[in-house]
Design brief:
The chain has three helices and 23 strands. The longest helix has 35 residues.
Length: 356
Amino acid sequence: MPALRFMDLSSNSLHGLLPPWTRSSSVTLLQSLHLANNHFKGDFPSVIKKCGNLITLDLASNSFTGEIPSWIAESSPQLRFLRLSSNMFAGAIPGQIVQLRKLQLLDLSNNKLTSPMPVDFANFTGMTQEQSTGVIIIYDYSYLEQIQLVWKNQEYEYSIPFVTGIDLSCNFLSQAIPQGITALPGLRSLNLSRNNFSGNIPRDIGNLALLESLDLSWNHLNGEIPPSLADLKALSTLNLSNNGLSGRIPTGSQLQTLDDPSIYSNNPGLCGSPLKECANKTSVPTQNEISNDGVGRETLWFYCFVVAGFIFGFWLSWCVLFCKEKWRYALQQHVDNLQEKVANKIAAHCRSRARR
């Protein structure tokens, strides 16, 4: 079938090795290949090397083993949806995978992958913007392609052109979550749960403006939850449980709706709503307290000047006794003027206090 463009053999009882398709002409036009939920085994299918026009590859829920090959990005540069979940792939995620610039969905969950995550996620331009088209164009006709996905902790069948997400859950990935992952504002789902990630949650996590589901549970994350988490206005599913997080839980309009304590459970250092209030709560002065404090300082300075003026006047009057009569009259007149000004100041201050 040299003109074959779409093949779906998923959810059967097919088993054994995937045929090699020695005649390359029979797969060069293939754009969509679904082999999920079967019993295929062996290494990553080498026939994919010949599928230069592949857009969707779904090998989930089989018994494939070995490593994910580094040549996948070079051989299938058009890939937008890559689903390899629930197999037995091992080793590191190849760094070359970030060269799949059009990739919208990367699902490598439930494997035996190790080592850190790739760093340069900015190459995933397909995840940097909202996807608005609902069809995949396969030459002269449109096909509304569906795919089974675990989304918001439940399995759904989705029209995949709308989907943008990364699922690396249930592996053995380690070290820190790369800060670069926050350069993908088109992401709708991010699941890194049940790994060995350590360090802090990326401080700019709030850049993922369209994120609806975030699961970082069952890792070794520490430090405080970044305040930018409160900027995720579309967030409807969150799980940060079973880590080593500490500090006060951020507050925000959307976070206030996620009031299930279990999403923060087993983080001994966390406090604040919806968990218990922090013991060392810092009191933030209200505007009235600030205003009253300012008035108090003004009053203190005012009375200091009054007392200083009284002392000055007292000694001035004694000096007058020893001055000539003409100077004495002038000084008395000056003291009278000062006394009148002070009296006016006191009266104005009392009126101001009464109004408050």
